[in-house]
């Protein structure tokens, strides 16, 4: 693709850079605490007021109709400015693309504006006990009733569920069907009668995850996303976005790589030079790979099994960046700080969004054509 930016794209990038320089707050509390969650929700509303919360969405949903290239540049500016993590990321980066692809007009009109302003923060309810990376093994079920469905079962490791408003996930609607058949994609209220949310502490002791227990929770027909019994196909478009492009934009790793170079310069540790260079090159390579993906999508391509390669790369790059930083810090790395926080979070990367072991199977079978 042509990496020379047009005047319009340059103007968009400059506008974003100037706005962030004037508005990025300092030191918000962790979004995995009640007070931090509220502060991050308010930050999302500040972004929405500036029409910068969902720049790639259509203008009718408070977006900017930004191209994928503009979105990648927005992300680079966002992380370079040190802006807070996005408490709405499950909704705006995972559920929203699925709504645009598979939702009804009524669902888009009803759900997207509230998502953009963080009036509804969404939790991802994929995993279950004995059905994590093997998502098709899930046992939570939905039974038909007047005007909708009754959901029952247990979801676990549900991101943002401790403080979120709504959840999305798969439920088995036809127990007689094959594993990947007979599943339906539902949207549900985390405060509905029959829902119990039990927080799960992370390594840092904060409740970033939760278990969700559902006991005959009523969901109206209007909150079925896609066709009944066709949830696997709908969910795979969500998973491709999660692994391949939208959840981990290169801006996040570019900013971390630049901070790592600054740290290395301040420490003057020549023994770590090659690891720092490798990490910086890795971030730049991921950026260029993303531009290649953007070009392919702009020409009508789709995210498919290649997203598993992307997920393997960014998750291992994140660990390498933070391990190198902690080694540079030496004993200082044991103290609480952004590098230690980032390292603890990076350890989850090879697990969430489908474990790296599963992604290697996908690469082997679907891309390389190796036998099962």
CATH class of the largest domain: Mainly Alpha
What percentage of the residues does DSSP assign to strands (E)? 5-15%
Oligomer classification: single chain
Estimated helix fraction: 40-55%
The total of beta strands comes to 8
Task: Write up this protein.
With 372 residues, the protein is of the alpha+beta class. It folds into three domains: 7-86, no CATH class; 122-230, Butyryl-CoA Dehydrogenase, subunit A, domain 2, CATH 2.40.110.10; 248-368, Up-down Bundle (Butyryl-CoA Dehydrogenase, subunit A, domain 3), CATH 1.20.140. Helices cover 47% and strands 13% of the residues. The protein has eleven helices and eight strands. α4 (89-102) crosses α6 (231-244), α7 (250-267) packs antiparallel against α8 (273-298) and α7 runs parallel beside α9. The radius of gyration is 21 Å and the shape is globular. The two termini are 36 Å apart. The model has no long low-confidence stretch (mean pLDDT 90).
Quick structural summary:
The protein has 372 residues and is an alpha+beta fold. It is 47% helix and 13% strand. It has a four-stranded mixed sheet. Strands 2-3-7-6 form a four-stranded antiparallel sheet, with no helix packed on it.
Q: What is this structure's SSE topology?
A:
Layout: H1 7-23, H2 34-49, H3 68-80, H4 89-102, H5 105-116, E1 122-124, E2 141-145, E3 148-155, E4 166-172, E5 183-189, E6 195-200, E7 209-220, E8 224-225, H6 231-244, H7 250-267, H8 273-298, H9 306-329, H10 338-346, H11 356-367
Parallel strand pairs: 1-4
Antiparallel strand pairs: 2-3, 3-7, 4-5, 5-8, 6-7
